[in-house]
Design a protein that fits this description.
The radius of gyration is 26 Å and the shape is elongated. The longest helix has 36 residues. The termini are far apart. Helix 2 packs antiparallel against helix 3. The protein has one domain. 68% of the residues lie in helices and 0% in strands. The chain is built from three helices and no strands. The chain is an all-alpha fold.
């Protein structure tokens, strides 16, 4: 009986380690249809706006009736987030282009 009391802590400590070591291989996830890869959304403002429409459609697909928002409120939030993202990427593109022009002008 004493051996069981001495061995029990080792058995308890070994169980989580064994469970952790048996992780299954994760399936490779394919990008959802209709999504635009991030690399394709760094071009012209028109390209960024097109990506924004794809992002908006993807966002609307994520709505669930169990959420705390109505579908209309969720759509408004999606639109606000997408518009902010499009604006930020557009401004970042302008800043990157402006920085390139400035550095090219300063060179002999």
């Amino acid at each position: 009986m004493r051996i069981w009391h001495l061995a029990l802590p080792f058995v308890i400590m070994a169980c989580p380690l064994a469970a952790h070591a048996q992780s299954a291989a994760q399936p490779k996830s394919e990008p959802a249809t209709g999504t635009v890869p991030k690399a394709d959304c760094r071009g012209t403002p028109e390209t960024i706006r097109a990506c924004g429409e794809a992002w908006f459609k993807d966002c609307l697909k994520d709505w669930d009736s169990a959420t705390h928002m109505t579908k209309s409120d969720y759509a408004k939030t999606c639109r606000r987030v997408v518009d902010s993202r499009v604006k930020a990427l557009t401004e970042q593109g302008r800043a990157d282009d402006g920085g390139k022009r400035k550095s090219a002008v300063g060179r002999p």
